Structures
1.
Amino acid sequence: MTKIVRLGERPAYSFVPPGTANYPATASFDFRALSYPQRLERARHLMAAMGYGPNNRFRTTYDTSTAPDSKRSAAVLQAMLKQIYIDIDIVNSDVQIYYKKLQEGDFDISGAAWIGDFNDAGTFLDLLQSSSGNNYGKYNSPRFDALLAKSYQTLDLKTRGLLLNQAEQIALDDYAVLPVRFSVTQDIVEPYVKGWTANIRNVNRSRWLWIDPHTRPERGD
């Protein structure tokens, strides 16, 4: 990610972003501990088990938007998949058309992004609930849904976080989605601007911000 988007975004091995409130964040893909060569070998082995290889490649499409970062990421994904005998044709669409296709299930493989409505693991895991309108891949797991439903009825924050963490691990083990990266924001804030607090949602209400006249440099006319 540091060579593609260049914003310091971290590779994602889970679905819920790190630093989410009241969340243990121990769920992870099982291949996280493998080196890149080991991952490549494992992927080729799995493709060979399905009958694919250098002389019998799997071909499909990858839908994405026309946003510059999305186009760059798609090109890199295309190059990486070639190494495991998968050829993808990239289909770029304007954002409105692109998300309409996602909602209608008119895609083979696609990318999507989500910004949490609030600082809680549920705002992300709700996307994978079987009846969610944002569950574009139509993931359906009774075990996942049951844990999610139980978390809604749990008042103790620690217990609720553990339930959601179990649900996330189930979804990752099922490869319900393949998270790529955790987006970041970059803000330029002068040291004399007070009340600014870095936070996971990048929200700072203007009423708490103020200028310290003692540290602000004099401006010439």
Note: The chain has a mean pLDDT of 91.
2.
Amino acid sequence: MPGGELAFILAAAAVFIAVVGGGFALTSGGDKRVMQRAAVVKGEGAAVRHGGAKLDQTAQKKRQIQDSLKEMEERQKQARKKSLTLRARIEQAGLEWSPTQFWIISGVLGFVGALGVLVAGQNILLVLAAGIVLGLGAPRWYLGMRRDARQKKFTEHFADALDIIVRGVKSGLPLSECLKVIARETPEPVGSEFAQLVEGISVGVDLEEGMRRMTTRMPLPELNFFATVLLIQQRTGGNLAEALGNLSGVLRARKMMREKIQALSSEAKASAFIIGSLPPGVLVIISLISPDYMGPMFTSATGQMMLLGGGLWMLMGILMMRGMINFKH
């Protein structure tokens, strides 16, 4: 075979081998890229499904929290209505009276007051006024004073009780043990209220019902915040220590703001006290200096009506000024 033909055959074979090898390489690389692309698409689909499931779980949790808040809001409205009853106000004042005992005490005070004014020979209107004031006003005033003082003490020590729960939860104690520590170590009335909560839980009352009873006995916004945080955490989970720590900071800030407002309104309170005490003070001084001059004011019907009208107007003015400087709500 001539050398030129042999060279041509070898060149053609080399070209064929090169074409076949290149096609095989391209085909195998394409399959690998196809497989890689399929894996990427499969991973993206799994990620999308995982993200969608995560979004659905977040939306479901958010919806559950909203439903819990609405349910608790309705229960708090019912609890506020129950807290306005006489029995609830007696419990809020920390007294062990029954409503019957309260009305008996009111009737005895009213009868004694009216009898004393009648024996003094005063007008029948003054007798009725004394009976109403001592029978209806004085017991309710005492009840409200005891109730406000007890709620003030509770507010002062409540943030410390929350700190006990925060430290206990962070150290690994269960919530029930933290509540027992508060019942033992915090001053009154925080200790007694949490003691009743712990006692109710120990006999089978669930936490939600126990907190509802507690907020009825102590209707304070701070306690409602605490009950809301506990019940939401119980239903949906979450970091209880962090939530209660934030709530403790908010309550301390509210306390500081309340004290600042009281300091700013102290001048108005002093003015109200001075202005309110001037008329009865002047009346007493003039009666001591010149009894004959002030005698007709107490003995005549006109003077007695003037005293009654002046007392009513003074009472209305004092209540109005008290409403103007009362920043409780």
Note: Residues 24-30 have pLDDT under 50 and may be disordered.
